[in-house]
Each structure stands twice: as C-alpha cells, then as structure tokens.
Write a structure and sequence with these properties.
The complex is a heterodimer of chains A (about 110) and B (about 110). Chain A has about 110 residues and is mostly beta strands. Helices cover about 0% and strands about 55% of the residues of chain A. Chain A is built from no helices and 11 strands. By secondary structure, chain B is an all-beta fold. The chains are: A mainly beta (about 110), B mainly beta (about 110). At the A-B interface, strand 10 of A face strand 6 of B.
Chain lengths: ~110, ~110
C-alpha cells in the first residue's frame, strides 16, 4: 500500500475541533477521491478531483472541506463534526476520472468523533 | 445511473472448495465492472475488471470473474479457496465514467 498513503491512520476529535486528513499518491495519477465507509452502509463517494479540479461533490455537508493543491496531494479539512461522522475515510487515486481506470486506495483514516 | 447489487451479505466456504461471490448490475448500456477486496483495517485492493472482450476475466490471487450479459451478472470465482481469502469483497461499476458505484459488500469466510 505504498502507492497511496494516508495520515493519520487514527484520529479522535471532539465536536468543536478542527483537524485535517492527508492523502498522498505516488503513482503519477491525475484523479483523486475521498470516500466515507461506515459500518453496514455502502461506500459513499464524497469528493472527486480530476487534474486538480473538483468535479464531484455528492451533497457532502460543509463541515467537510476538501483541498487538492496538486495532483499528488489531497486533504480533507474537518470542523464541527457530528458523532455520526465517525467512520473510515478512504482516499483513492486513478489514472484519470474516466476511461474505466481502476482506483487504488489508501489504508484509510479511522475517525472517531466524541 | 448504474447500480450494483451483491445479494449475499455473507458467504462461507470450506478451505479447498470453490468459491463464488455474486454481483448483479442494472441494465443500461455496456457496463465497466470491477471487483475489489478489503482486508481488516486496510483500504480496498483492486482484483480485476471487465471492460470488453472475453467474458472470463482473470485477476490477482487466482481470482476470476465471468461477465454474463443475459443475466446482468459479474460473479467472482476461485477454484480453491484459502483461509487467507477471508475478507470483504466489493463489486463496482464505473457509472459511465462519472464515478464508481460500489455494491454493499459481501463478507467471505473461508473455514479451515
């Protein structure tokens, strides 16, 4: 899993905290994704960046704010989260957003909101 | 938009026996279908994909999948299961290149 790395691996934060999740891909890909994985629910796509431009925002609450400074890095800024936001947050990358390229995932950040 | 269904939450199989994890997709054009595996505390790993051509696709770790257009299915198979194959398996469709649509996942348990 050295292709896509995520930090931190675990995060516990209070509802009033501000924190950021970081994702880095070393594969030379041009598309990057944030997913939320909750227990008993399908994987939820949150944001998509293709060539550093945001192309998808699946009705994600504004307390989640993505940032993509370049094609290799992706951040998810978190503030005033709710307990129901506790989940595994997965970052992925692919060669491009279209053309049926497979996605490569990082190990995820396990977030707990207290 | 495409949708993907995995009708079984859990599949149990004895080590050495063949395994099948089922996936069906909604009918609309030509799908691009994928299988991923997730081990505990890990991200998803790509196993194989079907784009076009031969209906039998071979992938990593001895897995293969058969695309069946008439049954709108893309079942994952392996001739002889290993205990180490125990994991969560996801089928996905790329939804006309817009984004991936993942199935709910099937937990595979291979019993020694």
């Amino acid at each position: 899993e050295t292709g896509v790395t995520q930090t931190p691996r675990h995060l516990v934060m209070g509802m009033t905290n501000k924190k950021s999740l970081k994702c880095e891909q070393h594969l030379g890909h041009n598309a990057m994704y944030w997913y939320k994985q909750s227990a008993k629910k399908p994987l939820e796509l949150m944001f998509v960046y293709n060539f550093k431009e945001q192309t998808e925002n699946n009705s994600v609450p504004s307390r989640f704010s993505p940032e993509c400074p370049n094609s290799s890095h992706l951040f998810l800024h978190l503030h005033t989260l709710q307990p129901e936001d506790s989940a595994l947050y997965l970052c992925a990358s692919s060669q491009e957003m279209r053309q049926a390229y497979e996605q490569y995932f990082g190990p995820g950040t396990r977030l707990t909101v207290t | 938009a495409q949708s993907v269904a995995q009708p079984e939450d859990q599949v149990n199989v004895a080590e050495g026996n063949p395994l099948t994890v089922k996936c069906t997709y909604s009918v609309s054009g030509n799908p691009y279908l994928f299988w991923y595996v997730q081990y505990p505390n890990r991200g998803l790993q790509f196993l194989l994909k079907y784009i076009t051509g031969d209906n039998l696709v071979k992938g990593s770790y001895g897995f293969e999948a058969e695309f069946n257009k008439s049954q709108t299915s893309f079942h994952l198979k392996k001739p002889s299961a290993l205990v180490s194959d125990s994991a969560l398996y996801f089928c996905a469709d790329d939804n006309y290149g817009q984004n991936f649509v993942f199935g709910p996942g099937t937990r595979l348990s291979v019993l020694p």
